[in-house]
Amino acid sequence: MATSYGSIKGGRQEETRIDGIGGSSTSSTVPIDLHVQDLSYSVTDKPGRWWQRITHFQMPWEWMESGRTNQILKNVSFSAKNGELMAIMGGSGSGKTSLLDVVACRTTTGDVTGHVLLNSVSRTKALIESCAGYVRQDDRLIAHLTVRETLLFVAQLKLPKSFSSREVSSRVDEVIAELGLKHVAHTKVGDANVRGLSGGERRRVSIGIHLLILPSIILLDEPTSGLDSFTATNIIRTLSQLARKGRTIIMSIHQPRFDIFSMIDSLMILSSGRVVYDGAANQMVDYFASLGFPCPEHTNPCDFYIDLATVDPTNREREETSLQIIHNLHEAFKASSHAKADMVSIVDSDEVQRSMDLVRSRSPLAFKGGRTYTKDLKNLLSAYELQCETPGFFTQFYVILIRFLRVSSDDYLGILSKVIHAILMSLLLGTIYVDLQLDEQSVRDWFGIMFMTTVMYPYMVILGLAKQCHEERRFLYFELQDKLYSPVAYYVARVLGEIPFHLVYVFFYCIPLYTIAGLKMDMYSMTMFFIVVSASVFSSRCLAMMAAALMPTFQIAGVFAQIIFSLLLMSAGFFLNLDSIIAELRWMSDINYIRWSFQALSIVEIKDLKFDCNASLVPAACPATGSQALVQYGLDQGDLGMAAVGLGGSVLFFLTITLLGIRFIPQKPQDE
Ligand SMILES: Nc1ncnc2c1ncn2[C@@H]1O[C@H](COP(=O)(O)OP(=O)(O)OP(=O)(O)O)[C@@H](O)[C@H]1O
Fold first, then answer.
1. Among 2, 196, 222, 549, which is 20 to 30 Å from 239 by CA?
2. pLDDT at 510
3. Which ligand 1 atom sits closest to the C-alpha of 107?
4. Total-model pTM
């Protein structure tokens, strides 16, 4: 049902343009005008849900605070037309990024009122995601992938599953050609450490990622920030060309130089979340001149008018004057003909939601069967239908796994340093326990090496992996927001992808120490030793992943994981006999992976030993057999089967909490 809103003007009946991609008729760009009407946005620094408060280290007294409200956008209205490049300008903190976030449904907190319409259709999160791309201010690209690999990764996850791999590949090539990246298609993206693309080329790749799905609308937050003026001009020229090809492009930009300004079709100036100008870019100077603010000669109009619309905090007098000017500008704009934004008929959001539910349920009623849709809604639902057809769990899992293996194996230096680290740990341990004997003095040494083997390397991997997981948030947080894949697909691929590298490092950890210390040289013992150490190190990795998923910063995650590790260490049966642990804390050793790996290694390597005890010594001073020694250490309760259950249970526990953390606690990257 179409409801009216003010004077009815919009709802253009335009043809859907079909871009020929590999002959697929599914690749269409719907021409969309974006109308924003009376949009307000306020945030209150209210505490989040209880588990978020805990994991974000909010203090109990902060939980009680009702929070202050900050009105970021106030009654903003504007229209962005298909085929045009629109700029949102304003001083720092004027609300440009917030406006784009609200339009793109990317805000995680706050209250939004007002309307955002795609043609005449009230936008929902799913609709805007299916027809708009959002390019953030900073490039979140993986340094070790080439330009083509970067785009291919996204294309495999974002394009409808009806696309063959040849069509996916040719779509990637089209975007590369469209953005003038052919000459660097096989160059690594790079970063401060890896040699790669220039800043402008990197920005083009970020834009290209969002062009893959043929978006009708492209939103860009400061696409020229950090670029030199020549590169910035080239980027804006590209955006202008993309707009001419039938897209609606809205970008936020600080003070652009004149040649960039001349490419902008329409612009809006924001000041403290309020509109002080919205209209054609080439009418801005005349408009402000008519209000008594002509642009001085030899001055960039953008610089001049944005300064005019910015609060000057240098002293009280200037601040009051600038606030008064801004107030007057806003009032003048409200009263002007420019402020009369296009009022369009609105297809209400309940109707949109019902229609989307039909599309998602694949109901034959969706497009046939007597339902009548406006052309606008029908076009948008077609785009939404494609979004519903994106690859499922297994493709997501496979693509993420391949990317993880590709990126990890490309990092030769990282792999080499981890192998050297494992060998050094191993040599150190092996040297301390070199050539173990079977006399009464060596009984402690046998348990010593078993215990140290299960704690030394496992302890060392914790910080490294917690750091790596925190670095991966740079992509994870935003890729999850972009709905590139599900948290579960990422998590399963990440955990399984880790295993081959993990086994290689554990192999290099086991071999030197095993041979130097002179442990049992039969196949069974060697294999069991490797399996138990692998399980112990893997449990530590899972502990690190859990800490990284739950804690807001790397430092806190490191402390958290180390505290847990220390508790496990103390209750593992080496420093304190398992029989001496008080009953109330027994459970700590029962769920303790260090205890179970220590016990398993002791059973494999020590149980069958016979010690050469001096006949004058009592059994308590020198157990004659390994079995007696195990009894002395309290390690006789439980066999290898129980150890397997204990180790498996620990891994499962850490992994479950990690998954819940990734799913329910969206952790922002630390540089956000
Ligand atoms: N989630 C939030 N919680 C509290 N304040 C916020 C939030 N988001 C934005 N703000 C505040 O709203 C104002 C506008 O922020 P925004 O990032 O939109 O400005 P901007 O114009 O994009 O600035 P810049 O050009 O410096 O990036 C700022 O004062 C900012 O601190």
1. 196
2. 93
3. 1
4. 0.78
pLDDT above 50: residue 666:
yes
pLDDT of residue 528: 93
Nearest-atom number in ligand 1 for the CA of 98 is 18
Q: 573: which DSSP letter?
A: S
Instruction: List C-alpha distances in Å: 633 to 293, 586, 639.
Output: 87, 15, 14
pLDDT 10s digits, 27-44: 457 788 888 988 999 987
Give the DSSP letter string of 478-527: HHHHTTSS-HHHHHHHHHHHHHHHHHHHHHHHHHHHHHHHT---SHHHHH
| Contact residues for 584 (Cβ-Cβ < 8 A; gap 6+) | none
Per-residue pLDDT for 64 more than 90?
no
DSSP 268: E
| Summary mean pLDDT of the chain | 82
Give the Å distance between the CA of 19 and the centre of ligand 1: 37
Sketch out the chain's domains with CATH numbers. Answer: 2-388 (3.40.50.300), 393-664 (no CATH)
Q: What is the CA radius of gyration of the chain?
A: 32
pLDDT of residue 65: 65
Contact 353, 127 (CB under 8 A): no
320-366 pLDDT, tens digit each = 888 898 999 988 888 876 655 555 566 666 667 767 776 666 666 55
Is the model more confident about 485 or about 588? 485
| Greater model confidence, 603 or 12 | 603
pLDDT band at 490 (very low <50, low <70, confident <90, very high): very high
91 lines ligand 1 (CB under 6 A): no
| pLDDT for residue 507 | 95
Q: Is the ipTM of this complex over 0.90?
A: yes
CA-wise closest residue to 663 among 496, 489, 540: 489
Is the C-beta atom of 418 inside 6 A of ligand 1? no
In the prediction, which pLDDT does 25 show? 35
- Of 113, 119, 107, 103, the closest CA to residue 33 belongs to 119
Q: Provide the pairing of β-strand 248-253 with 217-221.
A: parallel
**Can you give the pLDDT at residue 240?**
92
Which secondary structure element, helix H or strand E, spans residue 275, and what is its range?
Answer: strand 274-280
Q: At what angle do helices 393-410 and 412-432 cross, to 10 degrees?
A: 70
Q: How many angstroms separate the CA atoms of 349 and 442, rounded?
A: 77
Amino acid making up residue 656: T
Cα-to-centroid distance, 625 and ligand 1 (Å): 71
Q: In Å, how far are 130, 415, 416, 509, 664 from 504, measured between CA atoms?
A: 42, 10, 11, 9, 33
Q: What is the mean pLDDT of residues 506-512?
A: 93
Segment holding 271, helix H or strand E? strand 266-271
Torsion of CA 244, 250, 255, 261, to 10 degrees: 20
Phi first, then psi, for residue 414 (nearest 5°) are -60, -45
Question: Virtual CA dihedral for 208, 212, 217, 218, nearest 10 degrees?
Answer: -20
Q: Which residues of 533-571 are buried (b: 16+ CB within 10 A; e: fewer)?
A: bbbbbbbbbbbbbbbbbbbbebebbbebbbeebeebbbb
Minimum CA distance residue for ligand 1 atom 3: 43
Helix (H, G, I), strand (E, B) or coil at 382: helix
How far the first Cα of the chain sits from its last, in Å, is: 42
Cβ(580) – ligand 1 distance below 6 Å: no
